[in-house]
Amino acid sequence: MQRNLFSALVLASCLSGVVHAASNKPVPQLPKEWEEIVVGGEALCSRGTPYSFFVSQGKSNKVVIDFMGGGACWDEETCAHDTKTFLESVADFKRIFEPTGIYARKHNDNPLKDWTHVIVPYCTGDLHWGSNDQEYTREDGRKFTINHRGAFNTRAVLKYVEEHFRNPEKVLVTGYSAGAYASVYWLPPIQEMYKHSSVMQFGDSGISPITEGFAKKAFTRWNAQAAFTQWNVQKTGAKIPDLDPKNVDWNKLQIGFIYEKLMNYLPDIPFGHYTTAFDGTQRGFFWLMHGDTKQWPELVKNTLQTLGKSSKFRYFSSQGTEHGILAFTRFYDVKSTDDELFQKWFKSYVEGGTLKNHDCVNCIDDEKEMWIELRKPKEPAQIEEANLEL
Fold this sequence. Notes:
It is a single chain. The protein is α/β, with parallel strands linked by helices. The protein has one domain: Alpha/Beta hydrolase fold, catalytic domain (Rossmann fold), CATH 3.40.50.1820. Helix content is 34%, strand content 15%. It contains 13 helices and ten strands. Strands 1-2-4-3-7-8-9-10 form an eight-stranded mixed β-sheet, sandwiched between helices. A two-stranded antiparallel sheet has the order 5-6. Mean pLDDT is 86; it is low at 1-17 and 369-390.
């Protein structure tokens, strides 16, 4: 119990930059170029509020499908309302959205400024994978339900996209944090929708290993396999044998494994990823999964280098602990340790250029001492002082 309480507090600190900011701000109107599409039917946010998504029409015949991040929840503590560990509603997303990074339409160096953007908000705590309304029980016996309906919400968005964007020249499937996992999970049905378009994938800060204990809890409570099975059989018309849930042990599933198998199944699609070498938020969640944060940088580096042996997978790892790049102003400033600007590298990626991979060489973990301290017992007031950016 002591570790569980500690975990919840640490996770809250990991998410403080987003969740607390969202809670303390009024719900704004997004810039006028963004149209909000309200979804009915089975689509729903975690605590029963309506689900909607956002579209900004571009000047070119190119489309970005962008899955948002915002924490995760998988047990009675992380899912409890008072822990504030994940974005619970579309209103939360609207409070924190800023038209920066790849959303800066007027920025001349934005390679996506003329693309149509489709934002898939995240409010279900399930990596956009869930197909289950899960009841959780607090220690005092009180019960509450979380609508892990990320898959229902995504299907509604993709239905709209397929109906409104018939033959785009290019389709970029991307996602930030939790959304990075969704950009891989939902890639096959999107590719099926656009067989005659140039489809590519790019994940932003979502390449972390997961532990078996976490997988047993989360994937079961989210019913994460359900949507996977449906598109695997019904949408594509053929199974991907190496990813068929009947053949895969989901308790040991790793994101690198999914990348590897999809790269084999979808030979014409480029894959890519960005992360900082010591991403504080990804390490925070790995710690909550009972993983060893000391091992995290090397595990991620090994995953990237293994995938990067294929010419179909390109990656860019920079120094520091910051989480995410595409939606931030640092999109235009970050460089690799061998001095390549990420913005130029990414521009070449979406244009189909030849790229080299970038490892973070001779990098130092700026928060090493903080992570050593996190392993020691502390009072809650001390724990809350640890601020990691999401």
